[in-house]
Amino acid sequence: MSVDRHSIKFRLWALRVIERDLVFVGGGHTHALVIRRLAMRPIPNVRITLISEQTLTPYSGMLPGFVAGHYSLEETHIDLNRLCQWANVRWIKGTVSGIDLDHKTVTVRNQSSISYDKLSIDTGSTPDLSVPGAADFAVGVKPVSRFNEIWGKLLRASEAQDVSEWGVIGAGAGGVELVLAMAHRLRAKKNLRLHLLYSGDHVLPGYPQKLVEKVEQALADFSVQCHPGFKVASVTASGLQAQSGDTIQLDKSIWCTGAAAAPWPAESGLDVSGRGFISVNSYLQSTSHADVYAVGDCSDMLDDPRPKAGVYAVRQAPFLDRNLRASLTGGAMKRVKLQSDFLSLLSLGDRSAVGCRLGWVASGKWVWKLKHAIDAKFMSRLNEPAGDSGGTMAMAAATADSDQPMHCAGCGSKLGPDLIRGNLAALPMFKNEAVTPALATAEDASLWRVPAHKTVVQSIDGFRSFSNDPARFGAICVNHSLSDLYAMGATPVSAQVWINLVFSHPRIQKRDHKLMMSGIAMSLEQQQVTLAGGHSTEGAESHVAVVANGEIAEDAIWRKNHSQADDVLVLTKPLGTGTILAADMQARAPARAVDAAFDCMLESNREAAQLLSGLQPSAVTDVTGFGLLGHLLEMLADTNVRAELQLAEIPLLEGALELTEEGHQSTLYPQLQPFLLQCATPSSWSEGSDIPAAARLLLDPQTSGGLLVSMQRSLAEQFIESYPSARIVGRITAAAEDEQAVTIL
Fold first, then answer.
1. What does pTM read for this prediction?
2. pLDDT digits 0-9 by tens, 645-684
3. Which residues make beta-bridge pairs with 435?
4. Element (H, E) at 436
5. Which of 76, 175, 377, 597 gives the lowest tally of CB atoms within 10 Å of its CB?
6. What CATH number labels 8-124+263-341+358-396?
7. DSSP character for 657?
């Protein structure tokens, strides 16, 4: 189904009021599936937010295949940012450390808290490392996101020539699949021996004997040494000690035993089971707080206990969807009923597997193909949803009964005083004796005493939101706006902010205002800039604009057109934010690219400017909306110098080149393309598609981009030593008559 984003229906949906917040904590299997369901059939007037520590969340069923080398990292992980973009779900990257159950807020480390009306938790579990020494000397398989990094280190360690002994502790399905996958991947390492240690008499307790025999044969074929009856009493840097007193020397101990619960649910006041997991009833509700739900490994179903297994998490999804929907609309909830038996498929290291159900056991290559087909189908539903975005489809479907009143313009579009007053009072604030903020005095304007020997520097910048995380978006807007001052060598002193929030219920607007202002205020405080005042309104989309005020001595101003022949050009940040954001809006940008772009935009130019201040650069500008090439041409305008750019030396954000090659670009790109007419380019380039992707990124509009600096080579090398992310990307030469301003090499 195709939806015209300029249609009346679409715009009506954009104006519908959000009245309640449904917040998901954790991007586990259940939540990912429920988000997909909610996108296809939305709950009217409910906003959905996902808070997750990682952009990529692993699918545990494919972890052995990743370790064995059958799958790439991307193939085994759900891209939460892409899923949320497709589903029109607000995604906030952060680590949850608790819940205020009385005020119904989620505490996010180093961020403002997130308010909820209904909350669902799906944060998984970790291995039980309570055995003495395990936390210090063993490697936990969970959380899988951290194990991926550890596995890379283990692979590098396997290159050592010395004989090495590695052990996997635990012979349930996870431990057996993991050690077989490792054995397959490392089969050529003759100096590496693998061990499987477990407390029982045989591997895979509870599985059919015929299946156990097939797995034991696979372990023997890979020369994995099994140690039954080994009940670990302690872990040391050199190995394990059993309760019997036996020891085994190990260089690496990999823990794949029973699950342990995170402490914060209990510390927050939620009822937990004897093992510390969130206690839920037959509707997946917390037994102590009806507005809180929990699923997957982080919970224990008291009425129908089940093992910690991904298959049960997947099967909880339709019930969670039904019951959240019912709780928000007044419908009837449904008791969870999960199957007692299911098809169990275990990979055997190579591309073979064994499976069982109801006593039936089979093995071979075809079983692995079946497992692969099931896993790949599951992942494709979440990483490659077909057709238009579920969120876009939901927008069109949700407009039919929209009866919201028309919102006022003019001063009637302001946010109410009670809505914003409490939020502003709680903001962190950098205090400057020379600035009297209007916020503090309730005056109509702020006061600012400028020293007699200083010149005032002012700039304004802003744009509509490109992130569903208001705090992160606010912080980026501050960095972007202050860059103009840093590019002139000025010291930012104060800022005024205008924010426009999407039409929604006042309760929701208060939450959004708090989040957005917290990001703005924290960024200003970190850069020692005083928030002097601002203005808040509502409208069809979220916008932020920042007026940046600074000071500088007249003779210390960096001019953008003072480049000198024999200077080199230094760029402090990589390019690519425009392309990545454009792809992200279409749910086409991979997680690694989105993470790289946001990390880059959240980095202020303050440190770079401070380091440059003692080096006397010839000319400086910031790379923003006109791209690197547009801003370089501004530096060269009305001068007697020209520039050479070394295309191969220009740093690019991870994923930007690939996305450009796929055809993604900013909508501003066509208007910037004429800049190439002012450049000498290789003869192989012609207009349009023959321009290499790396060259097209020279025209990529940068949000919160870096500084472009013209300076002597010796000073540039000194600067890069202190600021290693910077790169020399070209040089300045004297201009010859009729010569193009820029040569791209």
1. 0.86
2. 999 999 999 999 999 999 999 999 999 999 988 899 887 7
3. 448
4. strand 435-436
5. 377
6. 3.50.50.60
7. H
